[in-house]
Amino acid sequence: MKELQEKLIRAIDEDVRxxxxxxxEMLNHEKDLLLNDQINFFREGLEKDKAAYLEGELKExxxxxxxxxxxxxxxxxxxxxxxxxxxxxxxxxxVRKQVLDFSKSDTYLTYMQQGLGGLQVRPSGIFxxxxxxxxxxxxxxxxxxxxxxxxxxxxxxxxxxxxxxxxRMEFSCSLDEKCEEQMEWFASHSSFRIMEREDCHE
Length: 202
Description:
Layout: H1 2-102, H2 106-117, E1 126-129, H3 134-144, E2 149-152, E3 161-164, E4 169-172, H4 175-189
Parallel strand pairs: 1-2
Antiparallel strand pairs: 1-3, 3-4
Helix pairs in contact: 1-4, 2-3
């Protein structure tokens, strides 16, 4: 009887231990699953945060690069405009010098005579010339039979201007004005351009 009781107790103990081990194993399995789920949850969250951070950094880099590129292009265009203005200025200075040399030549007198010859001069009109051309203009008018007044005006390159306020008439044969008109035309219509190379920004 005693042996039977001991066997029964041992059987119950083994059964309890076996069930306890099973329960412990199940609990450990559940714990591992929960732990893995938690780790995966945090890992996915970190991956999303990292992706968002990297995208923000890339966007900022792209914005900076675009801004820098625009600024560089603006600087290049500014330098090109300054360079074009420099060369155009040199060209205009050369033209002025050539016109000034022309006004000191014998051909200049022919130019003045041709301008006067195509003009309908009236007694009320006056002539404006640079100071060094006053005597020349007076001689030309006298030779043509005119007695009009000759006044000095700021006209460095030469030529003359005829003004008849009474008859509301004005005629310009001023080399300064003609030179200025040609320069304005050149600036507006000339194909002279200093172009920017595309590979400067590559």
